[in-house]
Structures are given as structure tokens and as C-alpha cells.
Design goal:
Blueprint (H helix, E strand, L loop, with lengths): L14 H26 L6 H8 L3 H8 L2 H8 L1 H13 L10 H18 L1 H9 L8 H17 L5 H11 L2 H9 L5 H17 L2
């Protein structure tokens, strides 16, 4: 009679406490992953190692991130949020206020720079699973390019062209160009501009 009406979990604990515990564990795992990267590089990341460093069970790590790809995407969140804010609402030419052709070029250049800034993490995120082309960031990039090409007009298939341009910037492609083909960053950027001009801007 007159007992508390506060929601509880299946284990009888208050739901809010369970959510707080989950949030703390997630942050402990993220902090542990950052420490491992700082000490050993991205190659040192493994979910069981991150769990040991964080002092939580390995099952908790898998529930929070699913796999190494999910962990890598989480570690990139800060950079990703700032990048998306820049191209969606920042100053031109990356953000609104510039002609669509200038914004498309600025976006591709900025994405290329972002891939390089987080090279190993982004390579890990897109090669440990099949998420690369279906990830949240990819869908946002694709929609952004499709919208800009719609503003640009022309006879091209915007959805297809956006996918072609983004394929050129996949980490595994850039890694092959750099390591196997020996292409330096300037050659990659110049080649990207040539493709953009020929296929989309018709210059």
C-alpha cells in the first residue's frame, strides 16, 4: 500500500540508476580506449583489452559497441560532430552561402582532410565490418551531396554521382593509393578535383 511508483529494471533496481550505470560504463570504456590508442596506437585496440583497462566485463564492451567498428565510430564522434556542424551550418564555402559547386568541392576537400586526421581509426571503422557504406556518417554525407547537386542542376543522377565521389574517399581506397601506389596527398586532391570537374561540374 502506498509503495513507491518509481520504474524499476528487471533486476529490481531503479531504471534511472541502471541508465546511469550504463552511461558510466560506456564513458569508462571510451576513456580506456583513448588511453590504449595513446599508448599503443589504433593497432592496439581490442574490445577485451579495452574492457580490462576500463575494469568492466567484456560483455559490457560488446553490448555498448557491438564490435571494433562500433568502438572506432564512437572514438571519432567529436571530430564527426564538428565536421557535420561545419558543412551544415558553418561559414562558406563549406557551409551555406556559397554556390553549390564551390560547396561540393569544399566538402570533398574537407572530408579528405578529416579522413587523414583520423586515418587509422577511420580505416578500422570501415574495414572490420561491412558498415563502411551503410554507416550513419556515410548516409549524411551522401544526402548532403545529393542536395547540393540538386541545387546545381544538370542532367546527372545525383544519387549515383554522390556515391561515386564518396567511393573515392573511402579510407580503404585512400590507404591503397597511399601505401600501394605511392600517391602523395597533393596528387590525390588534384585527381579528386579532376573527377569532380569531369563528371559533375562539366569543366
Amino acid at each position: 500500500m502506498g509503495g513507491s511508483s518509481r520504474a524499476t529494471t528487471a533486476h529490481g533496481r531503479p531504471a534511472t540508476r541502471g541508465a546511469a550505470d550504463a552511461a558510466r560504463n560506456r564513458q569508462r570504456l571510451i576513456d580506456a580506449a583513448h588511453r590504449i590508442v595513446a599508448a599503443k596506437g589504433v593497432a592496439g585496440l581490442a574490445l577485451d583489452e579495452v574492457a580490462r583497462e576500463a575494469g568492466v566485463g567484456v560483455g559490457t564492451a560488446y553490448r555498448r559497441f557491438g564490435d571494433l567498428s562500433g568502438l572506432a565510430y564512437t572514438l571519432m564522434e567529436g571530430h564527426e560532430i564538428r565536421f557535420q556542424e561545419a558543412f551544415l551550418a558553418g561559414p562558406p564555402p563549406l557551409g551555406p552561402g556559397a554556390p553549390p559547386d564551390a560547396r561540393i568541392r569544399a566538402f570533398l576537400h574537407a572530408l579528405l582532410d578529416l579522413q587523414r586526421d583520423q586515418w587509422e581509426l577511420r580505416l578500422l571503422a570501415t574495414t572490420t565490418t561491412a558498415q563502411g557504406f551503410g554507416s550513419g556518417p556515410y548516409k549524411t554525407y551522401h544526402l548532403h551531396l545529393v542536395n547540393l547537386m540538386g541545387e546545381l542542376g544538370g542532367p546527372h543522377d545525383a544519387a549515383y554521382m554522390a556515391s561515386v565521389l564518396l567511393a573515392l574517399l573511402q579510407p580503404v581506397v585512400l590507404d591503397h593509393q597511399q601505401r600501394a601506389l605511392g600517391l602523395d596527398p597533393d596528387r590525390v586532391r588534384t585527381g579528386l578535383d579532376v573527377v569532380l570537374d569531369a563528371l559533375v561540374l562539366h569543366r
